[in-house]
Write a structure and sequence with these properties.
Elements: H1 2-25, H2 39-58, H3 65-93, H4 102-110, E1 122-125, E2 128-131, H5 136-156, H6 158-161, H7 164-218
Antiparallel strand pairs: 1-2
Length: about 220
């Protein structure tokens, strides 16, 4: 029994890692345009994505046992795709879609659920968040660790998923919460980039004014 569990755990981890890595290396495009007042729009985007994720999760039909969990991975990946699209839409709304890298996508998707695994990926200085650029090998190692954590979580919820009514409600509620947290992380990240640009522009303007004043004084 233990050997079977370990084997299924390994299969689950491999499936999760491959799906996540494919997801972050193929950044989705967005139909949303930048706006000077993004706050209301991004809140609506988060709400819509959270409700969609909850609906997808609640309607999943998952058989009991480890085999059921393995066959559910493609359906669970649909929730990750919803979340990845949400991150892209938030980035586009803030006018920062071009800065949505693989590393930034990993940070936004899993910062709330695997913070300890991502502590070397980003550096926070005040309100500024700087995501480190990683090699494909280094990034995959992080994704593998995330895959192990996700696999453990799925297996721990096996009994809940085996009860259709309770499982549907619980999974739907968790998907809503999970997607909302992804949205919050993405908003914080891309808003910080906008604020950083605004601060830089303000400093440049002050330097120009100071230079002009110096020139006028010398004249």
């Amino acid at each position: 029994m233990s050997e079977c569990k370990n084997e299924n755990m390994e299969k689950l981890k491999d499936k999760a890692v491959n799906i996540i890595f494919d997801l972050i290396t193929d950044i989705p495009d967005s139909l949303h345009n930048p706006t000077n007042t993004p706050e209301d729009r991004v809140k609506l985007l988060v709400q819509q994505a959270s409700l969609k994720s909850a609906a997808v999760s609640a309607t999943l039909s998952i058989p009991a046992g480890f085999t059921g969990i393995l066959t559910a991975i493609p359906d669970i990946a649909a929730i990750w795709r919803i979340q990845a699209q949400l991150v892209a839409d938030i980035a586009a709304t803030y006018g920062k879609l071009a800065l949505l890298s693989r590393e930034a996508m990993v940070w936004c998707l899993f910062r709330h659920s695997a913070a300890s695994l991502l502590r070397d990926l980003a550096v926070r200085t005040g309100s500024r968040i700087a995501v480190q650029k990683l090699s494909t090998t280094a990034l995959r190692k992080i994704v593998e660790k995330i895959g192990i954590k996700i696999s453990s979580t799925f297996l721990s919820k096996t009994l809940l998923r085996a009860i259709p009514a309770i499982g549907a409600v619980g999974n739907g509620a968790y998907a809503y919460y999970d997607t909302t947290e992804v949205g919050k992380t993405a908003i914080t990240y891309f808003k910080a980039l906008v604020d950083q640009d605004s601060t830089s522009e303000a400093n440049e303007a002050e330097n120009v004014d100071a230079g002009s004043n110096t020139t006028s004084t010398n004249d």
